[in-house]
Amino acid sequence: MAVKGSSAGSRESLWVTLLDTLFPPHCVACGAAGEWFCRSCMRSIPGEGRLGQVRRLSNASHWLAGALTLSPHVSPLRQGVHALKYGGMRVLAEPLGSLLATGWRQQSRQADCVVPVPLHPRNQRRRGYNQAELLARVLAEQTGLRLCA
Ligand SMILES: [Zn+2]
């Protein structure tokens, strides 16, 4: 993770700026120019920005108190998740993690920490990252929850 103001962070930021200039962002869901996941698509996700849309699953096991979902896995969210998971688009962790943070802040539950679902080591080596960890980092940063990874 880059530290703001560090030379490594500056180099990373410069690199991202150069890449954005050469390959301008476009929404992975609708193709709109300007962002990797546009505001229009963000607003069209069921549950985004609305209280009471985070649901508790009824089939939690004895070691898992419950699970919260933000939205059904449908377009455009589905396209964003697929691009993050299979398309190598780590940049999508920020907008998608922000959706999780918004959903978390709008419910009244407490949590000890955020634990990303581990990825099989073979898949992590092949992919180069764990998308759940990227999302968990954004969620933790934006909500103040501790990240247990
Ligand atoms: Zn879009």
Indicate the proportion of strand residues: under 5%
Helix/strand order: HHEEHHHH
Instruction: Give the class from helix and strand content and strand pairing.
Output: mainly alpha
The count of DSSP E runs of length 2 or more, i.e. the number of strands, is: 2
Mean pLDDT: 82
Shape: globular
Radius of gyration: 16 Å
- Calculate the terminal CA-CA distance, rounded to whole Å: 14 Å
Ions and ligands: zinc ion
Question: Low-confidence parts lasting 5 or more residues at pLDDT below 50?
Answer: 1-6, 50-55
If you had to describe this structure to a student in words, what would you say it looks like?
With 149 residues, this protein is mostly helical. The chain is 44% helix and 3% strand. The protein is built from six helices and two strands; from the N terminus they run H-H-E-E-H-H-H-H. Strands 1-2 form a two-stranded antiparallel sheet. Helix 4 (93-105) packs across helix 6. It is globular and about 45 Å long. The protein starts with 6 loop residues before the first helix and ends in a 6-residue tail after the last helix. Mean pLDDT is 82; it is low at 1-6 and 50-55. Zinc ion (ZN) is lined by residues 27, 29-30, 32, 38, 40-41.
